[in-house]
Amino acid sequence: MKDLLGKAILDFQTNNNPQSLITETDISEAEEMDVQYLFRSFNEMPKLEQLALKKCSGKILDVGCGAGAHSIYLLNKGFDVKAIDISANSIEACKLRGIKNAEVKNILDIEDEKFDTILLLMNGTGIFGRLINTTKYLTHLKSLLNPGGQILIDSSDLIYMFDEDEDGGKWIPMDNKDYYGELVFTVEYKGEVEAPFDWLYLDYNTLQNAANANGLTCELIQEGNNYDYLAKLSLIQP
């Protein structure tokens, strides 16, 4: 892993000639992303992100923190926040931004810690990679919750990206896939290309069914304007 997304974040933070990222998936064309967007303020965030941050409480784990935009907002509100990301460059940038409790860590490697809010935003289901991994991640996230704790997670239903048949059904090519929301991403930065990686978008019903099957309640908090949504998962009370 070349950590190109993290490199772009660190370049922006240190003013080291940052450039736009180029992202592409196996079902969409390449497009540019301005790395500055990852440093957005609360007022610049989409409404679903703002809503998620307003619903945070207690001790918080920010999973896949990136440039730390969500953690910084929560720290400024006085919360106890731990920020994690698998990107070493991103964590270095977070520390430069003043996030002291930031660590290079895979969520699956966190043990013996409990949180009141676990935050997974900017398509939080993405880290699951493939549908088959959903149970593994939900089970582990559940183990990190304090009693009464919550997982705030967002995603999108990608069904809108596929063409309709004449009878109104969707034509979905499923080569080597178990689910239409399984994408393969590539990232390019300053002429370098990251190794392709799996990234999962889950429709709400699929997330709800998976949560219920793994001892979690799933509440639809709000839907966005582009097939996206914010959900709250919590422990099923005995």
Automatic annotation (TrEMBL):
It holds the Pfam family Methyltransf_31. SUPFAM superfamilies: S-adenosyl-L-methionine-dependent methyltransferases. Keywords: Methyltransferase, Transferase. Residues 58-167 form the Methyltransferase domain. GO terms for molecular function: methyltransferase activity. It comes from the Bacteria. This is Methyltransferase domain-containing protein.
